[in-house]
Design a protein that fits this description.
The protein is an alpha/beta fold and 362 residues long. Among the domains are: 12-78, no CATH class; 98-157, no CATH class. The chain has helices at 99-119, 135-147, 172-179, 191-199, 235-245, 262-267, 285-294, 311-316, 333-345, and strands at 12-13, 25-32, 52-58, 64-66, 69-70, 162-166, 183-188, 205-207, 220-226, 246-257, 281-282, 297-304, 351-358. The longest helix has 21 residues, at 99-119. The protein is globular, with a radius of gyration of 21 Å.
């Protein structure tokens, strides 16, 4: 459901480019405001409003961003009340598992643990030996590692290190990290989500903005930003603050939608990853690399995440328009998974994950 608390007149502000500061741009996409609802994801944000937003491209550096943008005090209106990262976690209903399903789930869990132990330096269980696998099992595990869909969420272990998740939402990701042995910290601007993470999940989560937190220098071993950088009003100051509080050999992990992807290029304003105006910046691998460089980071690795492709959701976005027949393809789950795998191999997925480190001083 859309957020119904927005009563005042909409205010927009024109801004120069986040990256280079120039004010020369061209309009790339014009789009109505999207809806971030999970239960009603393809309805307009408010049928009584007709907000239209422009994604522009800087003629100097090529960064694509929303201009004009809603003022910061009003952006909360465009987040649905059931936005997935803000609502409380729902407990899964117990299922009646058959023998084979239980065996498969146990095997999947064991494979996940082995991948963490053998490729990401996580400690072995008591009584186990890291080198105890046979050559055959090591080869098989390597194949699983290459195809394991959730490996991009795994953070290399650094021995009960401190990890900060910026934009941690309801705390789901931090909960899993805490179970793996990390000292977890989170920042979330949504008051309800951050309160739930503190009160119900007993996590160390601060309500607000990183720029107001004042952590100690070089306090964290790892900092993650899963789909939060594109939401920020001050991305470069935030990245510079991230650099200050990250250890010299620490790791920064960022995930953002990729507007240079096959799905984004072909669906344009129907691309589900666009989500104007809550997404203030539309990144490419080139522009995210430039922004990180300006903030004092060097990109270590760029991964293409086929798990969270928006192809299915983008197809469903066509259901009421002149391309509505194409929306029927959204039911072909196996075909979509195969296509996403091919896009990942070609480096054209619409979600990218970046690993970066602080740039050494010369």
């Amino acid at each position: 459901m859309p957020n119904t608390q927005f009563k005042v007149k909409q205010e927009l502000e024109y801004i120069p480019c986040y990256l280079c500061g120039k004010d020369t741009h061209e309009t790339i996409i014009t789009s109505h405001s999207g809806n971030t609802s999970t239960s009603h994801p393809f309805e307009t944000a408010d049928k009584n409003r007709n907000d239209v937003f422009r994604l522009v491209k800087c003629k100097n550096c090529g960064l694509q961003y929303l201009n004009p943008r809603p003022i910061k005090q009003q952006i909360g209106y465009y987040y649905s009340e059931d936005y997935y990262a803000h609502v409380p976690r729902k407990g899964k209903k117990p299922k009646n598992k058959n023998f084979f399903l239980e065996k498969w789930m146990d095997s999947k869990k064991n494979i996940s643990n082995l991948i963490r132990i053998n490729f990401y330096n996580y400690p072995c269980n008591p009584g186990e030996d890291r080198k105890g696998l046979s050559s055959y099992k090591k080869i098989l595990l390597w194949v699983f590692y290459l195809t394991y869909r959730s490996r991009l969420d795994i953070i290399p272990f650094s021995g009960e290190g401190k990890i900060l998740d910026i934009g941690c939402g309801n705390g789901r990701y931090l909960t899993s990290l805490k179970k793996q042995g990390w000292q977890t910290y989170g920042i979330e601007q949504n008051p309800g989500a951050s309160k739930y993470a503190r009160d119900e999940l007993h996590l160390t989560v601060t309500t607000g903005d990183l720029l107001d937190c004042k952590y100690q220098d070089k306090f964290f071993d790892v900092i993650t930003m899963w789909h939060s950088l594109e939401h920020l009003y001050e991305p470069i100051p935030t990245l510079k603050e991230t650099k200050r509080i990250l250890r010299n050999d620490g790791l920064l992990v960022i995930s953002v939608p990729n507007i240079d992807s096959f799905v984004a290029k072909n669906f344009k304003e129907y691309w589900y990853g666009l989500q104007l105006p809550v997404h203030l910046i539309a990144f490419t691998t080139d522009s995210i690399t430039k922004m990180l460089d300006k903030a004092g980071f060097k990109v270590k690795k760029i991964f293409y995440d086929r798990r969270n492709s928006t192809l299915k959701l983008s197809l469903l976005n066509l259901k009421d328009g002149k391309y509505r027949l194409l929306s029927k393809l959204s039911h072909l789950k196996v075909l979509i998974k195969m296509f996403n795998f091919i896009l990942a191999m070609l480096g054209s997925c619409d979600i990218i994950v970046i690993h970066a480190q602080k740039r050494s001083k010369i």
